[in-house]
Design brief:
- The chain is mostly beta strands.
- The protein has a single domain (36-215), classed as Jelly Rolls, CATH 2.60.120.200.
- The chain has one helix at 13-23, and strands at residues 8-10, 32-34, 42-45, 56-59, 62-68, 83-88, 97-105, 113-119, 126-133, 136-139, 144-146, 153-161, 166-171, 174-180, 188-195, 202-215, 226-228.
- Strands 2, 4, 5, 7, 12, 13, 14 and 16 form an 8-stranded antiparallel β-sheet that branches.
- The longest helix is centred in the N-terminal third of the chain and has 11 residues, at 13-23.
- The two termini are 32 Å apart.
Length: 229
């Protein structure tokens, strides 16, 4: 795997305020600009002892990811649970207001699994994890974010304001969760399936229309750009 230098951006308070005001207007992407993504930004993490094609397919614009509760971790030196996830690279961030957008689908029977993460925090590994338990999307294994997500496409938007230390989750354009951030000096987005407590034998999620957006102006020309907005 090729190491990607973290992206350092400086976003003015005015730009952040405009983006957050737009979030309250009904479309969480208003006031944000999508960054440029290529397939190199989508890095697959899957059980280390199986080929990628045995746990991941990308066809017709849909990314299908699945994992078994009996699978190995993604690295032979890791003690973590089985996962098949996409780690978004090239746009690690440490400040400003950033957003993940994607259309997700979780087939019935999948449970005990994380389907999306904001990785990086102060005293924990993640700022946000969205779990699925028995058809409900939850904030970790706590409050319900959205009921009845099985067997349907849902639009997911996650807005992370690093400087204000807040995270907002929108499902189908409606804000369903707003929680404090968890600190940390570097963050990135992940999606797929990552086994949690009481996982089903097979866990699967499907994704399309993935975008990363940031508050303010045009996307940077390279992963090493330093921008002032």
């Amino acid at each position: 795997m090729v190491a990607v230098a973290p992206l350092l951006l400086v976003v003015s308070p005015a730009a952040a305020s405009r983006a957050l005001a737009a979030v309250g207007s009904g479309d969480p992407t208003v006031g944000f600009t999508a960054v440029r993504l290529s397939e190199s930004n989508f890095v697959l993490q899957r059980p280390y002892d199986v080929p990628g094609g045995d746990r991941y397919k990308f066809h017709g614009g849909v990314r299908q990811l699945w994992v078994l509760s009996s699978d190995k971790p993604h690295d032979p030196h890791s003690n973590t649970s089985p996962r098949t996830e996409i780690r978004m690279t090239g746009y690690d961030y440490s400040s400003g207001v950033w957003q993940f957008e994607g259309y997700g689908y979780v087939p019935s029977g999948t449970t005990g699994v994380s389907v999306m993460q904001v990785f990086g925090a102060g005293e924990s590994a993640t700022t946000l994890m969205l779990h699925v338990y028995d058809g409900a999307l939850r904030y970790y294994d706590r409050q319900v974010v959205e009921d009845n997500i099985y067997d349907r496409w849902f639009r997911l938007n996650v807005v992370h304001d690093v400087d204000a230390s807040t995270v907002a989750v929108f499902v189908d354009g409606v804000e369903r969760l707003r929680v404090p951030g968890r600190g940390g000096d570097s963050h990135y987005f992940k999606f797929g399936v990552y086994a949690q407590n009481h996982a089903s034998i097979c866990m699967e999620s499907r994704w399309k229309g993935i975008r990363i957006l940031r508050a303010g102006g045009a996307a940077p020309k390279s992963a090493n750009s330093i921008l002032a907005i």
